[in-house]
Amino acid sequence: MSLTSILSAEAIEKAVKDCEAPDSFCHKKFFQMCGLSSKTPQEVKDVFQILDEDNSGYIEESELKFFLQRFVPGARTLSDAETKKFISSADDNSDGRIGVDEFQTMVLS
Ligand SMILES: [Ca+2]
Ligand SMILES: [Ca+2]
C-alpha cells in the first residue's frame, strides 16, 4: 500500500507545495488539498498505517517531523512548533501521540 494508491499524486504535490514556506503548515488545509478529507474512514486508516512507520500503532512526534517527506521525498521537515501544534490538535487523550481514532477524527471532522 502506498499513499498514491489512495491519493492522487498531483493533489499530493499541490498540498506539499502549498506549505513549502517555513512554519506555514496547516494540517486542515493539507488534508483537504491532498484529498484525504473526502476519503472513507478505512482509507484514512490505511494512510495512518503508512505514516506509522515503525508500526507502533501510533504516530509519534518523531514520525510527524518527517510527515511531508512521506508524501514527497524532497519535501521539508516540519518545525518543532508545527509538529507540536499538529499533535496537540489531534491528541484528545493527551498521551503525546496520535492513535488511529484520533487521526480519523482529525482528518474527517
Ligand atoms: Ca509509530
Ligand atoms: Ca493520543
Automatic annotation (TrEMBL):
GO cellular component, one term: cytoplasm
GO molecular function per UniProt: calcium ion binding
Binding residue positions for Ca(2+) 2: D91, D95, E102
UniProt domain EF-hand: residue ranges: 39-74
Binding residues for Ca(2+) 1: D52, D54, S56, Y58, E63
Similarity-based family: Belongs to the parvalbumin family.
Function description: In muscle, parvalbumin is thought to be involved in relaxation after contraction. It binds two calcium ions.
Stated name of the protein: Parvalbumin
Organism this protein belongs to: Austrofundulus limnaeus (Annual killifish)
Gene for this chain: pvalb9
